[in-house]
Backbone:
């Protein structure tokens, strides 16, 4: 079985997808800008703009299957490729729906999937009609990522900072935990991972670290997994899907948002699951039997972020110290520029208990730093 698989996007998710795909008899091609991580790790890298219709179409028409590692792509080009018989997974209709946070929320409502109360705003002027709905999070309909395009509007005094375009106003929920469930689907059925618990950096508004499986009851674990399966079945989607959820103060599960691709909350599966999310994604889009998603150990994942006072070519400090720790695995993303809060890599930490894992996370944070060189190492 020889397939040509084209991936739109060559960042860290593409790099980890490639590392797994090398074990298969497939030829995986990547389309992205030359600065992308994958440009230095595969001979099948194509320089191009994944948001440009013609470049995506010209790339995809020579593939058997086209998939993504990021949602911000030319969906119109993918629609045309699909019409011409190229397999596109996830399906363009799914990407189009998920790319718009307002459409996502409407989908949840129409399919009786639990989510926080919301209203849709065509412009910021409409906010004056919903003052009694505050405090609420305003989310831009399109383009938000890793905390960007999202802000809390606590009261009327915050209206001056409102986003101007079409947006979602989502009622603030008293959150007990934020969890994520990775689920995959193809013609063979579904495979669902155990929920993970996400701990956020409150200043950068992105995940600091996660623990797997989430510290919730077996009943809530099953409920979250069933909910993720319901979502991907309702979407009739092929591929892998991250379903981010809130567990509110009353123990209700509410869907926050979706990502139709491998996800930051699934990185730990490379070492901690029998089948990683990257292997699962490849199996799903190649229409192969899905793998075993079971975790064989407790795990943590710590994002490696650029230090706040450094920008430029990355310099990694403390490598020897952290690699001396048992059951700690380093993944760097091959990025040539670091800056405050940029994801430069991650650690997976395995352990017998969450106390052991969190103790190692504390050491990793203290010992390992991403700073910057004064010039390119190759100069």
Residues:
């Amino acid at each position: 079985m020889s397939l040509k698989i084209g991936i739109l996007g060559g960042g860290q998710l593409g790099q980890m997808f490639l590392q797994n795909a090398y074990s298969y008899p497939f030829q995986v091609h990547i389309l992205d800008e030359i600065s992308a991580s994958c440009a230095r790790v595969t001979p099948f890298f194509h320089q191009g703009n994944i948001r440009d219709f013609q470049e995506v179409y010209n790339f995809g028409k020579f593939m058997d299957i086209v998939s993504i590692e990021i949602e911000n792509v030319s969906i119109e080009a993918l629609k045309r490729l699909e019409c011409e018989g190229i397999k596109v997974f996830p399906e363009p209709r799914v990407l189009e729906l998920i790319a718009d946070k307002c459409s996502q929320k409407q989908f949840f409502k129409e399919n009786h999937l639990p989510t926080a109360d919301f209203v849709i705003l065509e412009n910021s002027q409409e906010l004056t009609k919903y003052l009694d709905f505050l405090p609420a999070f305003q989310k831009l309909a399109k383009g938000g990522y890793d905390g960007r395009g999202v802000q809390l509007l606590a009261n009327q005094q915050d209206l001056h900072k409102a986003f101007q375009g079409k947006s979602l106003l989502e009622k603030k929920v008293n959150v007990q935990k934020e969890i994520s469930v990775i689920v995959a689907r193809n013609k063979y059925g579904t495979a669902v991972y155990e929920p993970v618990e996400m701990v956020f950096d409150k200043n950068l508004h992105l995940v600091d670290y996660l623990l797997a499986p989430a510290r919730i009851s077996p009943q809530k674990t099953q409920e979250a997994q069933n909910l993720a399966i319901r979502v991907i079945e309702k979407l009739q989607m092929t591929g892998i899907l991250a379903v981010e959820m809130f567990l509110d103060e009353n123990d209700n599960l509410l869907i926050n948002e979706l990502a139709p691709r491998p996800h930051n909350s699934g990185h730990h599966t490379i070492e901690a699951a029998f089948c990683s999310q990257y292997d699962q994604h490849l199996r799903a889009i190649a229409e192969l039997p899905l793998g075993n998603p079971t975790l064989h150990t407790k795990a943590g994942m710590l994002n490696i972020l650029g230090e706040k006072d450094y920008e430029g070519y990355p310099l990694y400090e403390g490598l020897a110290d952290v690699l001396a720790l048992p059951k700690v695995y380093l993944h760097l993303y091959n990025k040539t520029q670091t800056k405050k809060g940029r994801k430069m890599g991650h650690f997976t930490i395995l352990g017998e208990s969450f106390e052991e894992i969190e103790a190692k996370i504390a050491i990793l944070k203290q010992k390992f730093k991403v700073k910057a060189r004064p010039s390119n190492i190759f100069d």
